[in-house]
Amino acid sequence: MLNIENLKVAYGKAVALHDVSLRVEEGELVTLLGSNGAGKSTLLKTISGINRAMAGKIMWQGQEIQNQPSHLIVNHGIIQVPEGRAVFPDLTVAENLRMGAFTRRDERGVAKDLKEVFDLFARLKERRTQLAGTLSGGEAQMLAIARGLLSEPKLLMLDEPSLGLAPVVREAIYHVIQQIYKEKGITILLVEQNARWALKVATRAYILENGHVTMEDTGAALAANPDVQRAYLGH
Ligand code: ATP
């Protein structure tokens, strides 16, 4: 579905991704692990068309899409939920959700998806007329994910969805991500600091260090790997 080959990305002279290759097949949940500054956000932003690829290819369903503008990437169904719960604070919850659907013309489909999203996130339904700026951190993260779902994702990319949240809120986010994956069947590329959970739910995972992919395997195999355990699982 998504095939990245030998991708190189730099900020000025500083190379953030060297020769990165990665794939996500339809129906997978692929986790990207790596310490701060490893290049995880850079990779997602390059897929989304926010950062430029200097070399290499990003193939989507057999077509080269690297360096296409973001709106075209969104039209392909590649939807990124950015880090840091980016919601529009002066719009209501319902208006934020509508923003996720603003390129869609199928009003019926949007209404159906809105209903499904409210079934998934009861809290957002209760708060649909409230300004997004008044939500808690966890609710805002839920809203950012829900808005992504209204963009009809074929591939949903989540950048550290649990960052900075209290444990009980984090658990709720994990639960919702699993529902999106298992019940809605949406393919997911996940960047997540909590390696224990992220490897458990992943079909496959990649480890990114200093802009290089250093390991790739099933989530279970990586979780059993002593080097991974030492570096990411606190053993
Ligand atoms: P984090 O978990 O901290 O978000 P990350 O793995 O997502 O880390 P990136 O944010 O992709 O890492 O950063 C990769 C490298 O690129 C780092 O060295 C970072 O300092 C650098 N970098 C990221 N964004 C920019 C930018 N806008 N301008 C210059 N350098 C940047």
UniProtKB/TrEMBL annotation:
Family: Belongs to the ABC transporter superfamily.
Membrane-crossing residue ranges in chain numbering: none
ABC transporter domain residues: 2-235
Protein name: ABC transporter ATP-binding protein
GO biological processes: L-amino acid transport
Species per Swiss-Prot/TrEMBL record: Desulfoferula mesophila
Molecular function as annotated in GO: ATP binding; ATP hydrolysis activity; branched-chain amino acid transmembrane transporter activity
SMART domains in UniProt: AAA
Keywords linked to the UniProt accession: Amino-acid transport, ATP-binding, Nucleotide-binding, Transport
SUPFAM superfamilies in alphabetical order: P-loop containing nucleoside triphosphate hydrolases
Cross-referenced Gene3D superfamilies: P-loop containing nucleotide triphosphate hydrolases
